[in-house]
Design a protein that fits this description.
about 350 residues, five-stranded antiparallel sheet, mainly beta, Tachylectin-2, Chain A
Length: about 350
Amino acid sequence: MLVKRFDANPLITPTDVCPSRPDYEVVGAFNPGATVYNGETLLLLRVAERPKDKADNEEVAPILDPRTGQLTHFRVAHNQYDLEVPDSRSFIYRGRMYLTSISHLRIARSTDGVHFKIDERPAVFPETEYETFGLEDPRISRIGDEYYITYKVVSRHGICTGLLKTRDFKRFDRQGIIFCPENIDVVLFPEKINGKYYALTRPVPKHIGPFAIWLASSEDAIRWGNHIPLITPREGDFDGGKVGGSCVPIRTDEGWLEIYHGADAEDRYSLAAALLDINDPARVIARAKVPLMQPAAEYETHGFYGNVVFSCGATADAKGKVTIYYGASDEYTAGATTTIEKIMSTMK
């Protein structure tokens, strides 16, 4: 057994989270970034919510008005000929895509890494014109005394990657957009390498090229360059459809250990590992021959969007124990433990 799922899974469900307003309901609490702060495990959850008054014969998109800070509701009846509904997460009307929920970031706290108390109010709520459709999928990298948080921002402009900084998880300072549409699944390495910041990214080509993990570097963590492809999908394998960075890379004696996600041709998501050179992360030393984790539990195979295990954060201790926190079926937060040794074994 490569990973051991917590008996308490799912650790956090939508019913555990208070909506940000009384006329909304939470439909997802998932894909959390993870870190240890002041002796506590902190998860920065993606909380997706939607209006309660949605009728069965309509689609509703909650959208932030950045001028007022208020949410508006764009409604389309099902009898409209130019409406398409690809799945429960979105709809397309007159050629434009809208989301059926809007997400913000919320902190969950634990002293044992298993049982979490969730803050009643959002930590970071949509605010700018680039966040009008929501905030998603944060990753937390501690660099020095600061915590750098990459997150997806969604709006009519597209899906971008933004950057937050915090020292205390009370005040979060926006650093702006660091990758334009569509470059997602951005993960910062937890220290500078040869004086530079490094990031794993995932450009989304529209016409030519695979959905692959790229590497970029920066002098200031704001302006990025030296983009190169790093890890590509393997046709016919568990990660043959697309790959993307998941957890913040873990420093080991052998190199940077990256837990990434991969989807197959049927869009079934797995977690796997790659090992990168400690001084030159552009060099891939090894890559998983078998997945570390695949959807198996009921809460992973069925839900808002089934057959998904998708991680944005893990914690590792000095003894080599790794705790992976992951989104299950785009609805729940779950956890599993493994070890550095077991992760390494998947690449032999």
